[in-house]
Amino acid sequence: MEAERELSYFEAIFEAEQQEMDRDGRVILIGEDIYLYSGSGLLQVDAKRLRSTPISENSFCGVAVGAAMTGLRPIVDLTIASFAYLASDQIINQASKLHYMTGGRARIPVVFRASMWHNGSNAAQHSDRPYPMFMNAPGLKVVAPATAADMKGLLKSAIRDDDPVMVFEDNDLWFKRGRCPADPDFLVPIGVADIKRAGSDLTIVSVAGCLPHALGAADLLAAGGVAAEVIDVRTLVPLDRATILRSVAKTGRLVVVDYAHRTCGAAAEIAAIVAEEGFESLRRPIQRVTTPDVNIPFAPALEKPLYPSAARIAAAARRIL
Amino acid sequence: MAMTRTQRIESLRRMLRIRRFEEAVAKAVRAGEIPGACHSSAGQEAAIVGACMALGDEDYVTGTHRSHGHPIGKGAALAPLMAELMGKVEGICGGRGGSMHLADVSVGIIGESAIVGGGIPLATGAALSAQVLGNGRVSLCFFGDGATNQGTFHESLNMASLWRLPAVYVCENNGYAATTPLALSHSVPAVATRAAAYGIPAESVDGQDLDAVHAAVERAVARARAGEGPGLVEALTYRYDEHAVNLLIPAQYRSAGEIAAWRERDPLALFRARLLAEAVLDAAAADAIEAEVTAEVKQALAFARAGAEPELATVFDHLYADPVGAAPELR
To answer: What span, in angstroms and rounded, lies between the C-alpha atoms of B267 and B46?
Structure first.
């Protein structure tokens, strides 16, 4: 097998799931409409390990938690991330707390995958990016990879992890292709950010699917002679503070880019950490580029301008150069 | 299959262990030795023990905020339970769970949920696990009448029936969801009839009669273990205490007559009398069990009182099984 080849972000998800299901018979997949997978060639696995569910998001997430506590390692495909609100009872009240409440005697090795379908005229109930709410629930790990290789490596790490892990995927990344190792033991560690582009003048911290825009902004800034460092946090909980703080210590300038709503978002948390722990390094105020606090509208003319773009990120950067 | 003589004597002992434990807990709450809300299982012992005695050691159980009876019914040691209620390091959950979450994983209790109906999907998941792994285990889910108005009840029963999971749903119907009677909360008061919507066999039994509960649950367990799918048993029972010990409810919602009528049919008194009448044991032997249980509860109190308060430095322990990464709060 070739050591590394091009895969789409979407193909990386299925390769990770297939490899982990081949490796460990305890891994099962739970979610709506997945009965289709067994006939489609997307996944080759015994039918008893594919649990196609009724539309009962809260309870099938809880079923996965109960199964995780008793010997299986379920992956739940919640499909659209807004459905995680229905399941937040079982994810937050049960999954995030049971290891703690049992004094460490019960383990909860479960993965909840949720895809974020914003920027596609899916309107307010199918377009949310709810990871900040889950960052606020101690006991969960939260990852949001932005490249095919990071998705493959982080999803596999999530499946092998003994804690509940939420994996958020940006649907506009699904068909982006990138180099991806074929190795079935290729893992990206949870809790480690990645410097996607080195630079010394300014730090851009990117969350989830903002990465292509952050890199685009770095190109725009480079044309003006500014060397931006682009960090993809990759994991939101636990957040790799050290990598962010080291970069800001070097550059003295920070722009944080996040697809989620502004208030109490991932960008707000990162800005707060740098303000508390890296204040002396800052030469100018921290800038946030986020989606404003408004419900996602249907009309493309209203929706498309709301999200972070390369131009908005570059403009924020120029304000503090 | 009816219980053996040994099993019936053990049933009496477990009911006594719950009752004496709960009496000691209520005293300790009033004395300020146990913090937080405490929900007593006194009055509901036959429903709990009758169901647990139909299980094997390896079978799974989930329970509710009224959580003390379930681990005791499944055979847990009392001392770590009492130490947990007092918030001690030696507690069964290291002082992280407390009265509403007294889950003893070592006896198969995988969760006691203080979100009403929250444990029903967990039990259903344990049944899925047993089916996929083919280990022959059964998962028993305790819940109250109030939980049958939660979506988790309906969603989980549907999935369990659809997938023919080895799950047994046991409703401890004590007539009240906190203070709200069934007549004000259930369009159809009989909980067992709801199972019909999902094609699940169900029985409603006298929850103060341990033999009746055991027989019904045993039938459901046998079907589940044979791969015939889930079952539901509704045990009609009653809690003696207020919703929570020392809870001040500003209005009367249960008459003294109602409480007295249920106390007339006390599950422990009924079962003891039956065992004596059937010469399963004599009064001296029954009294000896009482004395042993009383001593065990006394020892549990002493163990709990002698336990250590957890150090604040350990507060992050058990937040994650695998604390990874650079974030200092996970170390």
So the answer is: 6
Yes or no: is domain A194-319 CATH 3.40.50.2300? no
B164 found inside a domain: yes
Quick check: is A57 catalytic? yes
Q: Which residues of B, range 144-203, sit inside 8 Å of A by Cβ?
A: 151-152, 155-156, 158-159, 162-163
Probe site for chain B from A35, A61, A63, A243 (most B CB atoms < 10 A): A63
The answer, yes or no, to whether the previous bond of A132 is cis (omega within 30 of 0) is: no
The residue among A201, A244, A196 whose CA lies nearest residue A221 is A201
Q: Name the 3-class secondary structure at A267.
A: helix
B284 to chain A nearest CA, in Å? 39
* Domain range summary for chain A, segments of one domain joined by +: 7-181, 194-319
- Residues 6 or more apart whose Cβ sits within 8 Å of residue B251: none
Q: What's the domain range around B275? A: 5-239+267-330
B142 DSSP assignment: E
Work out how many CB contacts closer than 8 A connect A with B.
194
Task: Establish whether A15 is a catalytic residue.
Answer: no
State how far the Cα of A28 lies from the Cα of A17, in Å rounded to an integer.
9
Provide the token pair at A94: 């049960």
**Predicted model pTM:** 0.96
Residue B257 lies in a domain: no
Determine the 3-state secondary structure of A79 from DSSP. Answer: strand
Alpha-carbon distance B217 to B212, whole Å? 9
Question: Is the four-CA dihedral B284, B287, B293, B296 of positive or negative sign?
Answer: negative
Residue B68 lies in a domain: yes
CATH topology for A7-181 is Rossmann fold (3.40.50)
Query: Which candidate, B132, B151, B110, B196, places its Cα nearest to that of A59?
Result: B151
One of A99, A118, A126, A213 is an active-site residue; which one?
A126
> What does the buried/exposed string (b/e) look like for B174-196 if buried means 16 or more CB atoms within 10 Å of the residue's CB?
bbbbeeeebeeebeeeebbebbe
Task: Please give the sequence-ordered ranges of beta strands (E in DSSP) within chain B, or none if there are none.
Answer: 60-64, 109-113, 139-144, 167-173, 176-177, 180-181, 202-206, 231-236
> How many structural domains does chain B have?
1
Task: Print pLDDT tens along chain A (321 aa).
Answer: 679 999 999 999 999 999 999 999 999 999 999 988 877 888 999 999 999 999 999 999 999 999 999 999 999 999 999 999 999 999 999 999 999 999 999 999 999 999 999 999 999 999 999 999 999 999 999 999 999 999 999 999 999 999 999 999 999 999 999 999 999 999 999 999 999 999 999 999 999 999 999 999 999 999 999 999 999 999 999 999 999 999 999 999 999 999 999 999 999 999 999 999 999 999 999 999 999 999 999 999 999 999 999 999 999 999 999
Give helix then strand counts, H and E, for chain B: 11, 8
**CB hemisphere CA count around A262 (13 angstroms):** 11
The whole-angstrom separation of Cα B36 and Cα B29 is: 8
CATH number at residue B97: 3.40.50.970
Longest dimension (CA), chain B: 67
Closest CA to A49 of A69, A22, A70, A15: A22
- Most A CBs within 10 A among B90, B155, B169, hence the mutation to make, goes to B155
Whether the domain at A7-181 and the domain at A194-319 fall into the same CATH topology: yes
Do the chains contact at A163 and B318, CB–CB below 8 Å?
no
CA–centroid distance for A230 within its chain: 17
